[in-house]
Structures are given as C-alpha cells and as structure tokens.
Amino acid sequence: MSDYTNEMTRRRSMNNDEAERLLTGGRSSGSPELARLLRGLRAMWASEASTVDTPVLEQISLDAAAMTRHAVADPIGDPQRVSGPVLWMRQRVATVAAAVAVLVGSGAGVAVAANSAAPGDALYALDRALEAVGVGDGGAAERLDEVRSLVEAGELARGLVHAPEVVTADAAGESAAAGEAAREALNAAAERIRATASGRDADAIAELRSAVGDLVSYLADHNGAVDGRRVAELAQLIGDGVRNGEAQRDPGAPGRPADPGAPRP
Amino acid sequence: MSGTHARPASGDALGDDQGLRAGDDEFTSTLQAAAAGADWAWRIIVARYSGPLLGYLRLRAPGDPEDALSEAWMSAASTIRSFSGDESAFRSWLFVIAHRRAIDAARRRSRRPVVVEEAPTPDSAPVEASAETTALEAMSGEAAMELLSALTPDQRSVIALRVIADLSLEDTARVLEKRVGAIKALQKRGLEALRRMLDEPRFPAV
User: Which residues of chain B have pLDDT under 50?
Assistant: First the structure.
C-alpha cells in the first residue's frame, strides 16, 4: 500500500464498529499502532502486582474485611468500640447520612429508633428511592445505597451531606444556580438539625420526620429530573421544622449540640 | 472471629492465579465470604481488581490515586452486603464507586492550591512478555499515560473504563451516567484523537 493510501486511511474518520473493535482488543487495519497501544495499556494495568505494593493490598484487604465484619456483627453500631480504619471510614461515610439522619429524629432518639418502627419508616422511604433509581443508575443508586447501609448499621445521627450529591447526580438539565441553591439548603438544614437534634418533643420529631420523608420521596420519585428549586424548598421546610422545634423547647435559646462527636461536612 | 478463618478447602479451586472466574460458583462463594468479612476473600477480590481500579484512578484522580483507591475499597466494603449480581456486574459496581471517589478527590483538590503532577505509571511494570510488551517497550508507559491525559476528561474516562477496566459499553454508560450513544461518540472521538497524537513525532511509533 502506498504512503498516500496509508495517509488517507489514517485521516478518514473512525466508525463506531472500528472503535468498538479497537476497544475490545481487536486489531484494525486502519489503525495498527493505536490497536497496539490499547492492548499495551490493557496489559499494563491488568497485572495488579506490578501496580500496587503488596503490603498496601494486604492492608486494604484487612481493613475491608474488618469493616465488613463489624457491619455483620454489630448492625446497630457503637462508635465507642471502633478505631483505626473502621472508625476512619465511619467518620468518612458518616457524612453520607443525608435526610435519613432526621427521619428518626436524630440524636438521642437514634438507639431507640433503630429498634422500633422508625427505622422501618426510613428504610421504606429508602427502598422506594432505590426502586425508583433502578439498578442501572449507578451514581444516585450507590449514594442512596450508602445511606441505606448507614441506616442498617445504626449510624443515623451523623450528617446530611450526601443528599446534595444525590441532587448533583440527578440534576441534569437543571440550572447550576438551582442545583447549588438546593445543595446549600440541604447543607443548611443538615447543620441546623445536627445542632438541635436532642430534647425534642414527639410532635417536633414527627414534623421533622414528615418533612424529611417528603424530601426523600421527592428524590425517589423524580430521579433523573430533579428540580433544584423544589429540593431547596423541601430542605427549607426541614429547616423550618427544626426552628419550630427549637421555639417550642426553649424560646430564644440556641440549640444544644446533640452529637458533638459527629463530623462536620 | 469467623471472618478471619482460613479459606475453606472448597475455595482452593479459586486458583493460583487468584482469579474470580465469571459465571461460576466460585465468584458467588467468594463474594459471599467477603460480605461475611473473610480476610481471604477480600485478599482475592482486592488483588484481582486493584490494578485496573488504580489505573482508572490515576487518570481521574492523579493527585492522590492511592488514597482514592483505599477509599473506594472501604466504600465497597461498607456496602457489599447490598450487592447482588455476577462478576461483570460486580466489576461495574466497583467502578461506579471508584468513579465517585475520583470525583470526591477532584473536589477536594479543587479546594486546595493546584500542584501539577503527572500521572505516574507502574514503576516496574513487569508486563508479561507478549505483543503488548513490545508495544510498551516501544512506547514507555509514561508516554502512553501522557497520551491518555491529553484527552478531554470524558474521553479519558471512557477509554480508561473500556480498556483498563475492561467494561462493556453499557457498563461504561452506567458508571458515567451517560447514554450509550454518548459513550459511543466519546470513545470514537477519543480514539481519533489518540490516533492523531500517535502521528506526532514526539511519540515514537509503537
């Protein structure tokens, strides 16, 4: 084949079939160099021993096993008994807890709620969310799955930070400003809830639970088409519920931290 | 603790290559053992997938890929009990998590002063002797990663997930939360860009 013909072959645009063939390890008469490069890249990263130190892999394996064992043996969770990587991960994942953290009232209500009907309510809402998200929608499903895992582990009072990320994942088509407003509102609601979660009366907890339930249901029902403004409104209602609870408990007094050990976002 | 028990004899068939064979009972039993917290099962799983995961994270989270890798595994450990599916689904699920951790890492980096770092490549890279080895001998791993790094972030993600992670078109779309048609377009443009770059004199022919 002449140089001219080779050049013309090279310059023509690639069709989808050729791209797929190259990416699945096949050869290409039009792009032999590219095919070799891709096969080389695949081989380079397929050999795990050459890319990650063995002690690092061993430590990761043991940490992962320990974390899984802890979840199996202690589904309620007791932050006082864990340390090292498990605690590190708990603190990290704790910031995931989203609106679920307040479905059960948070703070002192957590332990009771974890053994009563309340977590069932929370799990029901999350189940609805996961069903709506569907298996194929990785990002939001994974986020909500993490939330669910925390609920099952009894980590209900830790934070409200990943709800904004769910919004981020699902807010395709929304304006950046609306999405940002929703995230800020959720973060503000989370902060307020964490600061004032204890000492609530039953009515205040019920009101809060209802408001958060509305938000979770909205996220579940509108996956893929979340309206950032609506999320912000629902988050605002949560904040209003917290403020109402504060006023009923101790008018004019600042909120008392319910969980000083909880990490901040 | 039960999770630290040695691998049962029946698990020996998992093989000397530490492989998880897709579509057979070995994968299921290993995954179940991992979900119960068995060290041996996690060793197999971590060893099997860390290479491709790190390869992807080095392209998506070049500042701190090892931390992102560790975080991805810890996330997987915390949620593995909720997973169900075959090896292909598991691989896809892992890369969904890794992709999220890469985004988290990028967010953290965006809040810190920018330090330009090149994506490192395996130091020793003792790739098995083959035609692939020849390709990498002709073009260093560093140069190959440089080529990928020159792509747009989306193109880079798609190529990395297809080639390094060995994900299907559909699974790649799932990880990146895009339509299959969009993935096809991205991979085609990415490959065309790579082909053009290979023509440049600074990249020796492979």
Answer: 1-5, 9-19, 114-138, 205-206
Q: Which helix (H) or strand (E) holds B143?
A: helix B141-149
Contacts of A251 (CB under 8 A, 6+ apart): none
Give the tens place of pLDDT for each residue, B148-199.
888 898 999 999 899 888 899 999 998 888 899 999 999 999 999 998 888 7
Q: Does B151 touch chain A (CB under 8 A)?
A: no
Query: Which of A19, A48, A92 lies closest to B48 in CB terms?
Result: A48
Report the residue of chain A nearest B80, measured CA to CA: A68
Per DSSP, which regions of chain B are E strands?
A: none
Residue of A37, A24, A49, A21 lying closest to B167 (CA atoms): A24
Longest dimension (CA), chain B: 59
Closest partner CB to B47 (pick from A14, A48, A72)? A48
CB contact under 8 A, B136 and A52: no
pLDDT in tens, A50-109: 556 777 888 889 989 988 887 665 443 443 344 444 443 333 332 222 333 333 233 322
DSSP designation for A227 = -
pLDDT of residue B169: 92
For residues A241 and A208, what is the distance between their CA atoms, to the nearest angstrom?
6
Residue B141 sits at the chain A interface (C-beta within 8 Å): yes
Q: CB neighbours of A16 closer than 8 A, spacing ≥ 6?
A: B184, B188
Q: Which residue of B has its CA nearest to A9?
A: B195
Tell me the C-alpha to C-alpha distance, in Å, between residue B195 and each of A22, A34, B74, B117.
11, 6, 37, 25
Nearest chain B alpha carbon to A93:
B75
User: By the CB < 8 Å criterion, does B130 face chain A?
Assistant: yes
**Chain A contact set for B199 (CB, 8 A):** 10
Positions in chain A short of pLDDT 70: 1-12, 27-29, 46-52, 71-229, 231-232, 235, 238-265
- Which of A56, A61, A161, A165 is the mutation pick for testing B, counting most B CBs within 10 A? A61
ipTM of the complex: 0.73
Report how far residue A194's alpha carbon sits from residue A197's, in angstroms, rounded to the nearest whole number: 6
**Please, what is the angle between helix B180-198 and helix A16-23, to 10°?**
80
Find all residues with CB under 8 Å of B39, minimum gap 6, and list them: A61, A62, A65, B3, B4
> From the centroid of its chain, how far is CA A77?
19
The pLDDT of residue A52: 67
CA distance A251 to chain B (A): 38
Q: Do B54 and A50 touch (CB under 8 A)?
A: no
